[in-house]
Structure formats: C-alpha cells, structure tokens
TrEMBL record:
Gene3D superfamilies: ABC transporter type 1, transmembrane domain, P-loop containing nucleotide triphosphate hydrolases. InterPro entries: AAA+_ATPase, ABC1_TM_dom, ABC1_TM_sf, ABC_transporter-like_ATP-bd, P-loop_NTPase, Type_1_exporter. The gene is LOC108509807. Pfam families: ABC_membrane (PF00664), ABC_tran (PF00005). Residues 669-691 have a biased composition (Acidic residues). PROSITE patterns: ABC_TM1F, ABC_TRANSPORTER_2. GO terms for cellular component: membrane. Residues 430-673 form the ABC transporter domain. The keyword ATP-binding applies. This is Antigen peptide transporter 1-like.
C-alpha cells in the first residue's frame, strides 16, 4: 500500500522507536480524552431531563483538559523526535558524501560543494517536512477516528457498522465527481480521460490511472462519430500511459487527423463556464459593433433587427450560464448529498433504537457527534497520504542514495599492518597499477594506464604540464578518486574512501588548494588526529617549524590558538599551504602525496620546505614515508631522486634526473618555469609512449 519511498522515509523513524511508541500511547490517550466531548455532551443531555447536569460536567472538564495536556506533550515529543530524524538524515548525508559513498560535487547531487550542501540540507528539510506535516497529522487523524469509532461501537454497534459501510460512498463520491470534472476538463488538468463514460473507454476496462499528460489540445470528450475516434482508440495505450491497455482498431492512422472534431463536455461546469464566457464576449462584440454602426443601422431602419441579433446572442450566453449554474449546483449537491443521506439514515435508525429503549437520546447525540468527527478524521487521513507521497518525492533521491550508501563498518581489528605470515605477499609502499581516471563529460580519460610504485622512504616527483592530470593523479594516489580502471594499493591493500580507516590514517595529502576549517590554527594542524590521542603542543610546533609556520604563528595575537576564520580566510595562500604541510608532517604517514606543495610559499619558506623534502636527511631520504610529489615546476622536480614525466595522461619517462632521455630542464628556457610539456601528447592507441609497468614500475 505504501510506496518504497514512503517506507524508506518511515524507516528513518526506527531509531527513535521508543519515543514514537510513547507518541502513539499519548495520541490514543489524548484521542480518547477528546471523545469525552461528544460522550459527555450526550450524557449531559440525558441528565438535563433529571435536572442533574453538574455531576456529568466534571468528568468532561477533567478529561478535556487532560486530553489537551496529553496532546501538548505528544506533539512536543513528536517534534523532538522529528528534529533528531532531520539531524541524523543531514549528518548521514554529509558523512556519506565525505566517505564517497554518495556522489559529491560533480555527481547527481550537484556540481559544487555549495550545491551539494544545499541539496543535502534541502532534501533533509523536505523529509522532515513530510514527516511533520503529513505523518504526524495522519497519525492523529487515525487515532481520533479509532477512538470515535470505538465509542460509537460501544454505544450502538449497528450504527457504527452503518457508518463504516457508508463511509466509502461518503468519502469517495465527492472525490470521484471532482476527479471526473478535473479529468474531463482536459485543457487545464491535461489528463486523459481514461475513465470517461465514452463508449470506447468503458469497453477496455480496466484502465489504470494515473494517466500521462494529455498530448491533445482541448477537452477530450470525443463524440462517437468524431474523426478523432479511430486515432484515439488506436493510441489509447499512449493516451492512458498504460501499455497494458490494448489498441483497439488497427491499422492506426499515422497521426492526429488534421481537423479533429472534438466536442466539448456537455455537462462539465468548467467547460460550460468557458463556453458561457465565450458566448458573452460574442454578444458584447455584437452589441459594440451595432452601436459603432449606429448611423448606418438607423439610416437603414435596421434597429429592430440589430437588437434581435444582440438579444439572440445574449440569450445563448444566458442559457449556457444557466447550464453552468445548474451543473455547479448539481456537483455541490452530489458532493453533499451522501452526507445528508447518512445523517438522515443515522437519525432514522438511531431514533428507532431510542424508541425501542436500546440507547438513550443522549447516546444518540453522542453517536451523531462522533459520526461527524469520525468522517472528518477519515477525510483528513485520506488528505494527508497524497501529501506525504508528494513531499517524499523531493527527498527521494537523497533517501535512495543513503539507502545504497549504508555504511558498513570494517570488521576485525582496524590495523593495516600486514598480518604475520603474509609479509611476503605484500609489496610495501604505494603501487599504482594501470590507473585510468575519467571525468563526466570528457571523452578521453585524464589518466590512461598510469603505473608506478614507490617504496617507503622513497620520493618520486611527477612532472606534468598545466592540466596534465597532476591533481587527478594525486587524488587517485590518495584513493580519493573513483578509478575508471586499475588499482591503487598501499602496502598491498586497495586504497579507497571505503578502505579500513586505520589504513586511511596512514595516508596524508597536501592538495594544491588546501582546505582550512573555521577553527584555531593548532586545531587545523592537528586535523584528523583529534585531541583524544594526546597530541602534544611540542609535536605541533615541531611540525610547524619544519615548514616555516612557526615563524608567523608566534606573531599571531593568540599564537596557535588564533582562529583562522571561515575556510581559513584570515590566512594568506602561502600560510594556508604551510598549515597543510604541517598537518601532513604531523601525521608521520606511510604515504605522503603532495600536489604543488611549494607553489604559494614565499621564497624563504619554499627553500626551507624543499630542503625538508629533498635535502639530505629530508623526507625523500631514509626511513620516512613514500612521498609522491606532483608538480609542474621543473626546478623542483629536477631535485628529486626520481622523476616521472606525465604527458597526455601517460607516463612518458621515469628515472633519475640523469637517466631521462628528454629532460624538460634542457628544453625549458628557464628552469624556474612551469613545464609546458613536449612532443606529441596524443594517445597513439598502441601503448607507445606509455612507460607502463616497465618504466613506471621502476621500483
Ligand atoms: N571535475 C572535473 N570535471 C571535468 N574535468 C576535469 C575535472 N577536474 C579536472 N578536469 C580536467 O582534467 C584535466 C586534468 O586536470 P588536473 O586538475 O588533474 O590537472 P593538473 O595537471 O593538476 O592541472 P594544473 O596544472 O592546473 O594544476 C584538465 O583538463 C581538467 O580540465
């Protein structure tokens, strides 16, 4: 009965099941308290005759107040539980995007982080609104309807049964009339009249709504002799959006007849109104025309004729207006009539029961009041369900994605350390195997089968021209980019956003444009460590000193405790890069990926960082992490012990600076320059120029 999306939305409530159980109990209690109104009104009616009403008044007052208070507590509990649902949904969505389980910027949620954030927040809001505006009121309506029916059944089971049996007629007839009017309208509702009483359609039941938007103009009551009929009968499946509806009269005419005869609906108020307006406009036009030609009319003594013409038009318009009024009245009457019949029926049967002494007059009053409220409650219940479906639609994508992106916590011990006995089967360090990276909307991959390996304590500089795929390679090496092919392994274990968190903690990266958070400087440097691991201030300052951050950090108003502002806006680009470097060094990772790490630094700090990376005893020498340095700066790359040239998405050469056949520092005029790339970068398709495993796997 409930769609998967609604079920998914309701499943969000599960973690607060205790609160919802409490809400349910309170709702039932409050609804029963509300029933005290009709119940004691009837009771008082009985007591009036005995001139003793005050005794019956007190329970009504107490129960009424109790019900109101319970309702207040219930609504507050539900609101708090719903707020938790929204927070969990938002948090879950953000976490899923961060983990990479749900497409982030550039994916189906939006192109930019702002769009993704807006979408996530908007969808969470929509889900919250759906639950708050539809589920809770629907539950209230259900509780009220149940309580009212229970009271009716306890007083007079027969009347309760009659109410239940007539209920469908009472609720569905007005809807059916409104539906037919809307459907038949055609021009506004734009829905094909699958259930219209024209011969064609009735002969192909069952035709299941909902229908597709109507491809035809105008009202769609087609007279049986219309030239449109064969076309419509042939295209009925299309019209009704239901492939199960058979075509009736092959062979099909190829298209809509050029001048189809479409007869307006003779009874629909909307059509009548439109025609009446048209007729009135026509009559007015005739009158205006007559008045404009007054002299001519008089000159020819044609006054009576013109008046008769105007009168004839007006009388046509009047007829249509009468028809419209009658149709409107009939519609209103048809909507209200079942209610009237129901009330009269209840009064009749109830009166007999009173006469027979089965119920008292006061109980009949109670039953009639209960009946009225019961009908309203069920009506409200039916109103809220479509509302819920509508509201769910807006949050459906996020719910679906979250459903798919269920976080499965890694099992076993969180340790990337190679289990004993398996050391031989694992290659220590970083290994990129035939890595392909693509972006949506790009015909060619950005990286085409890049393979390289990097042992712990080794530094490799990848030199590429602007747009040559450096950042893509860095992201892939960090396991942050979904690969179109190949694999990235750290110590023999695939590295991806879903990898074991312990493995991910062995990795550190400094992106080209590092992100700082709206926290203190020290909190930004210790990002990812958390304070719980007992990070010492001395460790932070030591890391900061290695990359020149300490020099300016001590001059800040609050030193390392200075807030850096939203997205680190109070720091310069060079300072932000220094913080990102200190953050990475603090981790003492097994793999360090640096994307243009010195580009924004001032010359002094740049020299210091280069020494830190490439100098004797630096990161690129000895027991440190495996360092992958991607850069476009020739001068920086040539200092590295090993250099790989990345061109056209492929590794062109890899070796020590002296081993390279076409070193860029010989072709580039100034070795400080950015490498512009050289030679043909096109993919030859045969793998030539691809250093592949032979060169790339140089380690
Ligand atoms: N999200 C993306 N969507 C589509 N294309 C992208 C995306 N990111 C990068 N690209 C394209 O991929 C190619 C490589 O981009 P990448 O950022 O990896 O190069 P780069 O060498 O780091 O560039 P730069 O020298 O400017 O830092 C570029 O042509 C770029 O336009």
């Amino acid at each position: 009965m409930l769609s998967p999306a609604i079920r998914r939305l309701l499943a969000l409530l599960r973690p607060e099941c205790r609160q919802w159980a409490l809400v349910g109990v309170l709702m039932v209690a409050s609804a029963l308290g509300e029933v005290a109104g009709p119940y004691f009104t009837g009771h008082i009616t009985d007591q009036v005759t005995q001139e003793d009403t005050s005794a019956a008044m007190w329970p009504l007052v107490v129960l009424g107040l109790g019900s109101a208070l319970t309702e207040l507590v219930c609504d507050c509990t539900a609101a708090v539980a719903l707020t938790r649902v929204r927070a969990r949904l938002q948090c879950g969505a953000v976490a899923a995007v961060l983990r990479g389980n749900v497409p982030g910027p550039g994916g189906s949620l939006g192109d930019t982080p702002g769009a993704v954030a807006a979408r996530v927040t908007g969808d969470a809001e929509a889900a919250h609104a759906a639950l708050a505006d539809a589920v809770v009121p629907a539950l209230w309506a259900l509780a009220r309807a149940g309580a009212l029916l229970a009271v009716m059944a306890s007083l007079a089971p027969l009347l309760a049964l009659v109410t239940l049996l007539v209920l469908p007629l009472l609720l569905l007839l007005p809807r059916a009339i409104a539906g037919i009017q809307q459907v038949v309208r055609g021009t506004q509702g734009l829905r094909v009249p699958c259930q219209l009483p024209w011969p064609l359609v009735t002969s192909v039941s069952p035709v299941s709504p909902p229908c597709t938007p109507c491809p035809l103009p105008g009202p769609l009551v087609i007279s049986p002799d219309s030239s449109l009929l064969p076309w419509a009968s042939c295209h009925l499946p299309l019209l009704c959006g239901d492939s199960s509806v058979p075509s009736l009269s092959p062979p099909c005419p190829p298209s809509v007849p050029s001048n189809p005869v479409v007869t307006p609906c003779p009874v629909c108020p909307q059509d009548l109104a439109r025609r009446a307006r048209a007729a009135l406009a026509d009559a007015t036009a005739v009158a205006v025309e007559s008045l404009r030609a007054l002299r001519t009319v008089r000159a020819f003594g044609h006054e009576a004729g013109m008046t008769a013409r105007v009168q004839q038009r007006l009388s046509h318009s009047h007829q249509l207006e009468c028809g419209e009024a009658l149709a409107y009245g009939a519609g209103r009457w048809a909507s209200g009539f079942p209610t009237l019949v129901m009330k009269l029926g209840l009064l009749l049967v109830g009166g007999r029961l009173v006469a027979a002494g089965t119920i008292t007059p006061g109980e009949l009053v109670t039953i009639l009041m209960c009946h009225l409220n019961f009908t309203r409650a069920v009506d409200a219940l039916l109103l809220y369900l479509p509302d819920l479906a509508k509201a769910v639609g807006s949050s459906e994508t996020l719910l679906e994605l979250l459903d798919k992106a269920k976080w499965v916590a890694p099992v076993g011990t969180l340790s990337p350390v190679t289990p004993r006995g398996h050391e031989a089967s694992r290659t220590p360090g970083l290994c990129l195997k035939d890595v392909y990276v693509t972006y949506p909307g790009r015909s060619e991959p950005v990286l085409k089968g890049v393979s390289l390996s990097l042992a712990p304590g080794e530094l490799l500089a990848v030199l590429a021209p602007p747009g040559g795929g450096k950042s893509s390679l860095a992201a892939a090496a960090l396991g942050l980019r979904p690969l179109a092919g190949g694999a990235v392994l750290l110590d023999g274990t695939p590295l991806s956003p879903r990898a074991d968190p312990a493995l991910r903690r062995q990795v550190a990266g400094v992106p080209q444009s590092p992100s700082l958070l709206s926290r203190s400087l020290s909190a930004n440097i210790t990002l990812g460590w958390g304070h719980r691991e007992g990070m010492q201030v001395t460790q932070v300052t030591a890391a900061a000193q290695r990359v020149g951050v300490h020099t300016w950090a001590t001059r800040l108003p609050h030193g390392y405790d200075t807030e850096v502002g939203p997205r680190g806006m109070q720091l310069s680009g060079g300072q932000a890069q220094g913080v990102a470097l200190a953050r990475a060094l603090l981790r003492t990772p097994r793999l360090l990926v640096l994307d243009e790490p010195t580009r924004a630094l001032d010359p002094v700090t740049r020299c210091q960082v280069e020494q830190e990376l490439l100098g004797p005893g630096g990161l690129g020498a000895g027991e440190g992490p495996a360092v992958l340095l991607v850069t476009g700066q020739v001068a920086l790359a040539r200092q590295a012990p090993r250099v790989a040239l990345l061109e056209g998405g492929r590794l062109r050469e890899l070796g020590s600076p002296g081993e390279l056949a076409t070193p860029p520092w010989e072709t580039a005029g100034d070795s400080e320059d950015t490498w512009e790339g050289g030679g043909d970068t096109e993919d030859t398709g045969d793998g030539e120029g691809d250093t592949g495993d032979s060169k790339g796997g140089g380690h």
